[in-house]
Amino acid sequence: MVESAQLLEELAVFSDLGVDPPSIFESGVDYLVRMIRLGRATTLRFEARGDGPVTETVDDVTINHASYRALLASERFGQLRQWADVQAAVLERAGQEKPLIQLQGYVASIKSVTGTDALDDLLASKPGPAGRLVDVMLIDGPAGIGKTFLIEALAYRRARSFMQYQRPLVLHVQSRGRILTFLQDLIAFSLQRLRLSVTFDQLPILVRHGLVTLAIDGFDELGDPNGYANAWAQVDELLQQVRGGTMILAGRESFIGRDRLFAKLNSLDAERQVVDSLTLRLPDVGSARDWLRRQGWSDDLFELLSEFFVEGSYALRPFFLSKIADADLAGAVANNEFGPTLSFLVNAMVERERDKFHAQVEAAMDVDERDEFIRRFLSEVAREMAENQTEALDETTIRWLAESVVDEGVPEEVSRLLQNRALAMVFLTVDERRGYLRFAHGQFQNYFLANATISAVADGELPKFVRRNILGTDFLAAFSDATQDVFDREPGVMPAFVSHATEHLARYPHVDRGPRNLAAVLIACLPLAEVLPDLSLIGRDVDEAVVRGWAAPVTIRNTDINQLDIRGSSVEAVVFEGGSVGGVLMDSLSRVSPTLKPAYVQVETPAGKVDLFTGDMRDLWLSARGGEGAVVEDAVMDQIDRDHELVRLLDKVLRYRGYWLREHSDAITERLTGHPLWPDLLDILRRHDLVREEVRASSGQAATFVHLKRPQALLAYLDDPSLTDDPSIRAFGGELRQLTGEVKAPG
Asked: What pLDDT was estimated at residue 214?
């Protein structure tokens, strides 16, 4: 039975404004409701007080509905048939049928899910208490893993098959780069872009009755200048409004978790509500190779890029695979010289893009000038979006930004050609709003925003978005990649960036997020600290920090860090003096300093699942990876002496973020390839076929490029040799132990 008060409250939001509100009275065992809907006097009879059929009478015309739920879905109320038709058309135009490798993941309750169909069936059929469907589904994973695509694909599948299966439609709500004020605003925008007549206050009723599933994508981006308290509070309130329905919350794996959800959301009750989680994982190497073959890849191309595709590689992220499926682009990536995998992809795309300009542009600007135009233009686009907290800009603004980065000496006609070309850049794509463009992926946006940040601060400026926005871990990871890329292209920029950032920190008042964000980006620079002598951090507060690669020796004094992400990285040489670290996100390849003493650790497993440890388990994890109390077991026959200079050099080289290591090319690589033990290390790697070398023309001279094969497998061996079964890795390890004098006699 539906309570009369609830019925009246829900129907009131469907009543016309400026008229008498709905009224309700009992007629035997039925409810009668009178209201004005769409300008017409409407009488609703709810048989058995809401548990039976509903009769709708409008101007003496009677329409029978099987239930109250059916009434809400009908053409005069929720208009779900129209919703499904519109949403299917919009998402089909947005490219939902373009090829993408099938997504895979683990659901906490049933272990594995493959593809959108499986998630659809799970949400539709998994019973909760008293037969209800799942109340909250968490979807987590790193940037580029396919969270947004999965939700859009689910929404498209539900809309297209709505009349056949009548499963709840999906409303996809995204942050779109905006600081959160009211969650209802984002919901209203999502409804508006579909041009639906349903309003934001009607939506919770449709969700509550199982007609619509609400999916909030990028929840970890919905912060305000004071953090996430407002976001958690609004989701908590929304959950109370939709109780009995289904919600999807998607975000990065370190932010969203079942335990954290119950801790932050008072409206959740573990005994009465079902909260499940889907952790998306990287495709395996075999699936990626099979998928790329179906996209037209040749065996020769696989041979060129074979070292990209190893278990756990960034290159296995669906975002990267979807771009590199273009064989021409893949060839450009294979020939690129520097940078981490994201930089590889961006640089290859820039190289292709700079050759697509009008002949008149090519006559007026050489290759380097066109390259600089592309990078400066896209950095300004990313900055403009960040400054205005949006993920899309109108074409007029895009043209103006292109014009603003054109050098003064360029002829006006060439400038107009550049403005036209800017609208068709491969990094940008058409937005849902007519006449607007956005980045083709958030990874591109983060990368170019990182470049804009470095450039602005190096010039002595502190941009508004640095002072106001939350710089999350996805941005900081891209920023770390960008620092190395910028250093390779313009070695003088990064020292200027660190110098000015440090100056800003010294005199900047603690009135906004500026100091926290500056401290976070300086921590992201730790892998360059050996060539950035001014890099230091004293007496700061940091929300989230990311280190990628091998962090050089630096002392961080009296600094409080809420969460430090060191997955796949080493902070073994960093000294944490005073201050505190709330949590450390790490994996089996992470190495820590004895001075790093967090309150808890989050450990990411190879499957992508994140486990939280405190107390003794935390201490065991830290001590096993260099933390306080680390010991060397004499009984372990295979133990590697990690303090030996040759092993330390190997660890640094394996954590180098670039694909190619060009010998003696700059200050960073010189500290590796110029090391006295580098020839010895290279000889061992050659003997065990663990290195690839090429001689290429670079900057007009022949240069040797080196790539270490299977770096993650080698790092895993250094961490615990006893867990490695691979014969070639173990043979390499045996010779390494002989060279470092660590062979132990039996018994």
From this structure: 94
Q: What angle do CA 229, 233, 238 make, to 5 degrees?
A: 150
DSSP E strands, 150-299: 169-174, 212-217, 247-251, 275-281
Cβ neighbours around 218 below 10 Å, total:
22
Between the CA atoms of 42, 43, 44 and 47, what dihedral angle is there, to the nearest 10 degrees? -170
pLDDT at 287 over 90: no
Average pLDDT, the chain: 85
- Which residue do the tokens 């889907």 mark? 278
User: Partners of 392 in the beta sheet?
Assistant: none
Q: What is the rounded CA–CA span in Å between residue 561 and residue 580?
A: 6
Q: Note whether 472 and 516 are within 8 A (CB).
A: no
Cα–Cα distance for residue pair 495/484, rounded to 1 Å: 12
CB 152 within 8 A of CB 173: no
Beta bridge partners of 546: 565
Which three-class secondary structure state does DSSP give residue 366? coil
Rounded Cα–Cα distance for residues 561 and 581 (Å): 5
Phi, psi dihedral angles at 632 (to 5 degrees): -105, 120
β-strand 537-538 against 555-557: which pairing, if any? parallel
What contacts 711, CB < 8 A, 6 or more positions away? 654, 655
Summarised one tens digit per residue, pLDDT across range 151-182 is 988 999 999 999 999 999 999 998 665 555 57
- 217 pLDDT band (50/70/90 cuts)? confident
pTM over 0.85: no
In this prediction, residue 337 has a pLDDT band, given cuts at 50, 70 and 90, of: low
User: What is the sign of the dihedral through the CA atoms of 495, 522, 559 and 623?
Assistant: negative
Which residue in 712, 424, 456, 485 sits closest to 588, CA to CA?
Answer: 712
Q: Which residue has the tokens 């509903």?
A: 54
Identify which of 465, 454, 282, 474 has the alpha carbon closest to the alpha carbon of residue 389: 465
Burial of 317 (0-12, 13-18, 19+ CB in 10 A): buried
Residue 577: is its pLDDT beyond 90?
yes
Question: Residue 364 and residue 422: Cα distance in Å, rounded?
Answer: 17
Task: Please list, residue by residue across 707-738, b when 16 or more beta carbons sit within 10 angstroms of its beta carbon and e when fewer do.
Answer: ebbbbebbbbbbbebeebeeeebeebbeebbe
